[in-house]
Every structure is written in structure tokens, then in C-alpha cells.
Amino acid sequence: MSTPQHPMPQAAPEWQGASGSPYPTYTSPIPVVRTNLVHAIASEWTKIKSVRSTIWTLGVFVLLVVGIGLLTAGVVASSSSDLAGESPLSLGFFGLLLGSMCVITLGVLTTATEYGTGMIRTTMTACPSRGRVLAAKAIVFFLVAFVVTLVSSTLVALAQVTMLEGNGAANPTGEEWLKATVGVSLYIALLGLLSLAVGSVIRHSAGAITIMIGVLLAPLVMALFMFSDSLRRVQEALFEYSIPNQMSIFYANSLSDSGPSGWDPLWIALGVAAAVFAGAFALLERRDV
Amino acid sequence: MIEAVGLTKRYGDKTAVYNLSFQVRPGAVTGFLGPNGSGKSTTMRMILGLDNPTAGHVTIGGHPYRRLPNAARHVGALLDAKAVHGGRSARNHLLSLAQLSGIPARRVDEVLGVVGLQDVARRRSKGFSLGMGQRLGIAAALLGDPQVLLFDEPVNGLDPEGIHWVRNLMKALAAEGRTVFVSSHLMSEMALTADHLIVIGRGQLLSDMSVKDFISANSADFARVRTPDTEPQLREKLTSALTEVGGNVLPEQDGALRVTGLPLPRISDIAHDTGVRLWELSPHQASLEEAYMRMTQGAVDYRSTDDRKAGLQQPLPPGAQPPMPVPGQGQPDWYAPPPPQQGGRPFAAPQGAPGQAPAGPYGAQAAPGAGPGGQQAANPYAAQQPPAAPGAPQPPEAPAAAPAQPSGAPAPLPASAPVTDPTKPEDAR
């Protein structure tokens, strides 16, 4: 052992002094601190930044959002089409829609990989407060996802507004700016948070990613095939509450006129994520690791 | 101090651990032994609060693990060397654990030095060999400089230097007054490392005693005494003389006597006093490994058998000799049966030595003491019936006065005899 050796602490049973243990005990010279959520957050930050999957998924995300955003803006700008007072910000939608897959993947990986590798047992041994670990993961992931989305969506929005000035695009209002940057970033980050909770429940990366992609696309795809009149209302609801449509509401180009509007998608996402998180916490406490 | 009381864990209808109670005391290395699938790892996981016991409870220093404040500073554990994210470097892996329990980052480099991984600290652990992974796991366990340490199979995959190091590390940690709980299925390893042994089989406690007690309770020490073959009456004379003074004498196949309960010098004195010449007077002791195997024999879940390739072999051309089986396959009769059935061969002698010529078409597979090999049925499948395994090789006239069950007892029985012994020394604690 490399630790400085105390003179044998025969009579120093500090830790279990109350039990009056007749056995010799060891007391570490390293001071014991009371741990809290901040320690767990520091640990999760180290974890998330020290694996390549984070770099890859976020790298692809930025590439998709910025690349597709600039590409669409470039195509529209060069085609000399007239936007007729449309907000130029709406062109950022396509990149973010595709990019959300990356955030979902990263969200799932943040929790599910630990189960896949067995790291979770090491983590839960080091910190038996399981809820604290999940909370720290959620906080760290949410901040990372939010900041990355905010930066890339703002960049794209700025570029699009500049490039499309000559195409008759409207000058976006302050609220439009807010929704197209902060709003949609919060939404994407919440979507990732939902994936993180699903990953914690499913404990299997591939399974959880599949579920989340299903959640993302299935309602829209199902609605596309509901031709029957009797299903009209279901079809509408599926359209309106499908994630792509909810995202488009941040750009005010919803696929339908009824359904959620304004900041509604954010509250919906928040509610769903909170519900799944409650389930994830409960399961985490109860299940064997 | 780890204390388990009535610990039980069921997975569906499979009981992994049943009513396990034991204490692991500080200041000693406690070995935790059992065959594969006997519930060692499940028990370890329950100690660490990873699995919830179906019944019973286990505490560390009086608290359930999950109630310990800053558990990582009190308990360090190596559960599974590969329980790390392979994409993360060794240092970052340890750093994240250190941050989680408020351990200064300096300590990370310190433990990396202790386990000898400082040169690969920044390499991704995916590329680590099993031994390096094991070292990383040990580093994680040592990180919090904890009072209680749990190691699940710590020497798996380590090189001889590493095994030696781990052995000394365990002892050093225990000498500092820590509680060290090490699981293994290698009795020989535990014999060198542990002070105390807890043996389980099929999830139940088989033995809980010090290594010293374990040896004396399970390894039948005996003396072999041989009188001149030419004068059988001397043998009778000595037998009665030895029995008179409290010795336990058993005749062996080849005419020697197996004496227990008397020290060698005493036997010699008695022989001298009764005027019996001795041709041999030798001490014998079963190894700990054999004692352990005998104890767990009935509790082995996964038992290897001969690879007979039944029905897959080409018919042998007439007159051709089948290849001689490698001794050691088909474990049931590979473990030494209790001493008195041994058919007069030294207990510790290598079993089933290649010299034991095969008799049947497949030979007497791995039969220990297959001296009278001719009685092995020519049909290779005859020997396959499990009950025949421990007993069959012994000649039927094997002395029935054995302390352990005589031949013909089905496989699980030999274990039951030693199983009852361990309860005794428990009071002595």
C-alpha cells in the first residue's frame, strides 16, 4: 500500500466506535467528506467527456444541423425564389429533425452503456445513492445537449437570416428568435433526457434507441397510412402530437392549424420526460443492478 | 466487519443463495470459496447493495451498504474486472470514481502506481489484457483507502508476479486492520492467502472456520504403517496394540495399515514395545485442495464429463487400438475420494497416473485407483452412470468400516460427511 501508514490504529475505531468492536480497525488518513449531488455531477461530467461516443454523436449532430441548415439556406438563396415574408429561421428545422436522432442516441448511451459494460455495478458500488447518480447524469447530459443545440441552432439561424436577406424573407421578431434557438434547444435536450430515462429503464442501448426512434417517427408514419374516415381524428392527433410536428411549431410552420401551438411542445415534452423519469427513478431504486 | 444473517436470494424459482449467515472480521483475510455458480458473486453483490436479498440481510459495520455515508470510503470492491467502459482511459475511469466519492485526484495517480498501471493510465481500457483489467479493478477497490475490501476472483488472469503481488497485498491490507473478503474457486490460492475460510456450495454454507481448522477437520491426516509382509501375525498384533491405546486402524489393500489418532513417535514406540518390526512408518496428509473438492463434490453445479464423441466416431478397423484417454477428463471420480477407500495408495499421490493402463476399448477413463482395471466393464457406456463414478473403481471388498461412506454411495453422499463437521468449530469461535 502506498498510503502513509498510520501507527496501527488499534484503539481508534472511529467509524464504528459505537459498536465497541473488539477487532482492530483501519482508519484512512485521507479525510472522508460527505458527498452530495455536486460530486456526482463532477463524476458524470468526467464520464461523458471521456468517451468517444459523445464526441461522435455530438459531432454528427453539429454537422447535420449546421450542414443541412447552410445547405437549405444556400439552395434557397441561389434559386432566387421568393419567401414572401416567411421567417428564414424555419429552414433550420430539417437539420434539427435529423440531428435529434444523435441527441437521442447520446441520451440512451449515457445510461444504457453503463449496463452494457457492467460499469453500472462499479458506479453503484461507489455511490449507492442510485437516484443521485441518475439525477447527475440527467443534469450533465441536459446541459451538454442544450448548450450544443443552442450554439449550433443559433449559428444556423444567424447564417440563414444573413443569406436570405435578399429573398424577401421577413425579419424575425424577438419571440421568433427565442423560439427558434432557446425553445427548440430546450425541446431537443428534453427529448434527449427522455431517451436517457428510457435507456435507464430498458438498460440496453440498441433496444432503447430503437424505442426512441419509434417514438420519434412512428406517429407520423402511422398517420400517413390512416386513410379511413373513421380514423380521421386519430390521424389528426397523431400528426399534431408527433415529435416532428411539435418541433416545427417552434418555427411556426405546423403541419396542421389545430393542436399544440406556441410553447406547448415544451410543456408536453417536459411532462412526458418527468413521468418517464419518475418511473426510471422508481425502477432504479427497486431493481437489482 | 461484514455480517450476513439468513441471506437468501431467489431468481424466479432458482435459489442462488439460501439462508447464508456468516461474519467477516477485520484484521484477517477471509476466503470465500465455492464451485462455479455456488452463489459467491450473488452474495458479494448483496453485500454491496447491488442486489436486494429475497430474505435476510447483510450489514457492513452495522449498516446496510446503501445506508453507509460515502460508502466508497468504507468499502472498496472488485467485482468484475471488465466492469468498466472500454472506451474510457484507466485514469479517467478512476477519476470519475474518485470524484463520485470526493477523493482527491492525486489519489488516482497514487493507486495507478500501486497497481503498476501508470504507464498505460491514459490508454483506453478496451485494449487491456485480463490481467491489466484486473489490476484496474483492484485500483478502483483501493481508491477510497477503505476499511473493508471485497475482491471477487482477484487473481483471474494475472501473471505469476501479479498473483504473488495480490497475495501479499491482501495480507498487508488485513494486517493494517482492514476486513478483506476474497472469493475464489482456487483452494490452493486461498490456502496461501486466507486466514479464515467460508465455503459455500449451491448457495448454502458448507463451512466457516479458520484455515487451520479447515485443514484438520477435512484433511484426514494419517500414518501409514507397514509390517513385514512375511509375518501377518505381526500385523494383527500391532493392530490390537494400537487400537488399545486409542488409535484408529484401518487395513489397506496392500497389507499396510492406516493409523489415525496417534502421533508417529507413539506408533513407533508401541511397535517397539510389542516387538513388531516396521517396514514403513510415514506421515500422510491430504492437501487442502482435495479436502475442499471432497467437501464441495456434492454441490458442484457444472460438472465436466468425458468427451466421448458418442456416435460420431468412425468404427475402428479390427485390431486397432483406440487412443488412450488423457487422464483428468470427467471430473467426478477425478477428485480424491475419502481416504479409506483409496485402495492402499497414498492419498496425495497423483490420481489416475498415466501408468494406469486402460482396459476396455476406451480404457478405464480417468479412474483413480484403477488398479484392478480388469473389472471395468468393457462397454464404455457402463461407466457413464453417475452413481458408479466415485465408488466403481474401488474393489467391492473395500473395507466398510470407513469413517466416510463406503463405496456404492451415490455421488452427493461423500460430501455430506464432511459437511457435518464444520458445524463443530463454529462454537469454538
UniProtKB/TrEMBL annotation, chain A:
Name one matching Pfam family. Answer: ABC2_membrane_4
Q: Does the keyword Flavoprotein apply?
A: no
Q: What is this protein called?
A: ABC transporter permease
Region (Disordered) residue ranges read: 1-20
- Kindly indicate where the leader peptide sits in this chain: none
Q: In terms of domain of life, where is this protein from?
A: Bacteria
**Record-annotated membrane-spanning stretches:** 55-77, 89-112, 133-157, 177-199, 206-227, 266-284
The answer to whether the entry has keyword Membrane is yes
Q: Which UniProt keywords apply?
A: Membrane, Transmembrane, Transmembrane helix
